[in-house]
Amino acid sequence: MIPGSFAYHRPTSVNEAVGLLADLGDEARPLAGGHSLIPMMKLRLATPEHLVDLAGIPHLKGIRSDGGDVVIGPMTTQHEIVGSDLLAEKIPLLREVSLLIADPQVRYVGTLGGNVANGDPGNDMPAVMMCLGASYQVVGRSGERSIAARDFYRGAYVTALNPGEILASVRIPVPAAGHGFAYEKLKRKVGDYATAAAAVVLTMSGGTVATCSIGLTNVAATPLWAEEAARIVTGSALDTAIVQRAVAAAEAITSPASDGRGPAHYRTKMAGVMLARALASAKARAR
Ligand SMILES: Cc1cc2nc3c(=O)[nH]c(=O)nc-3n(C[C@H](O)[C@H](O)[C@H](O)COP(=O)(O)OP(=O)(O)OC[C@H]3O[C@@H](n4cnc5c(N)ncnc54)[C@H](O)[C@@H]3O)c2cc1C
């Protein structure tokens, strides 16, 4: 339960952080809230020799509007997302999701950036970012690039981030006014990761679904964007037969592990149940 020894670095700018990571090489890791990384270090599942703490970089914090997007700094905490008036107005799904992450102690310190950059399929925000069509701006010594959340996750704890790069902001297109949204998460107890969870954002027009996007959490090695399930419900009135077809399409792309949260087949079925509930809630909320 005691991590190995490491050197601690506290840069005050993105350039300094990126320079440190490049100079220190493979044995250096960015540190955000530490609520995923420090437990891994205590279990010796991660043994970085250098931690580059991003907490001293003011540029990495904050939530702002930018045209039709909302841009969130990676060091913004889950607690700050819960309390943001801008997000409550523009992307209320993020508040709903944040409130389902862990407990207040974790949310006070855990950050959006750490949650999405971690690559843990159990983290809730990645599938939500895929559902929302978000993109990640990343910075390394060789410059900046933007990566779609839908292209970011390559395997459990494997992402498109190159060594030495940090996530510098998360850009989310604001869903259409009147959109319906929901995040349904099955967990064994308060503070647990998802057995299975589903995010839905949709718009309705004249009783039919005009647009729909669906993300699934913790039912594969990566978060999933359920494109075919969303295609099935688009143009429908979300009647029972359509929901059943969408659920079957979503279940078909899952490949969960059998673990303490249940056998694989159960978790796949729970993903379907969460999706059916999320579709119904999103439809009921759409204006
Ligand atoms: C008891 C408990 C319960 C939890 N339950 C949930 C839950 O239900 N759902 C959920 O989603 N999460 C849960 N978490 C995880 C929590 O939300 C973490 O805070 C979060 O996943 C990671 O954020 P962090 O700021 O703590 O990141 P850290 O732990 O500091 O970092 C996580 C990883 O991301 C990397 N990283 C961080 N920031 C950047 C960046 N800007 N650029 C590049 N790489 C970066 C780090 O190097 C590290 O590899 C739980 C944690 C605990 C302790």
Describe this protein's structure:
This protein has 287 residues and is an alpha+beta fold. It is 35% helix and 25% strand. The protein contains twelve helices and 14 strands. The strands form four sheets. A five-stranded antiparallel sheet has the order 4-5-10-6-7. Strands 11-12-13-14 form a four-stranded antiparallel sheet. The protein has a three-stranded parallel sheet with strand order 1-3-2, with helices on one face. The radius of gyration is 19 Å and the shape is globular. Bound molecules: flavin-adenine dinucleotide.
Secondary structure elements and pairings:
Elements: E1 7-9, H1 14-24, E2 28-31, H2 37-42, E3 50-53, E4 63-66, E5 69-72, H3 78-82, H4 85-90, H5 93-98, H6 104-109, H7 112-117, H8 125-132, E6 135-140, E7 143-148, H9 149-152, E8 153-155, E9 158-159, E10 166-173, E11 180-186, E12 196-205, E13 208-217, E14 224-225, H10 227-233, H11 240-252, H12 264-285
Parallel strand pairs: 1-3, 2-3
Antiparallel strand pairs: 4-5, 5-10, 6-7, 6-10, 8-9, 11-12, 12-13, 13-14
Helix pairs in contact: 10-11, 11-12
Bound molecules: flavin-adenine dinucleotide.
Flavin-adenine dinucleotide is lined by residues 29-37, 39, 54, 74, 101-102, 106, 110-111, 113-115, 117-118, 123-124, 161, 166-167, 191, 193.
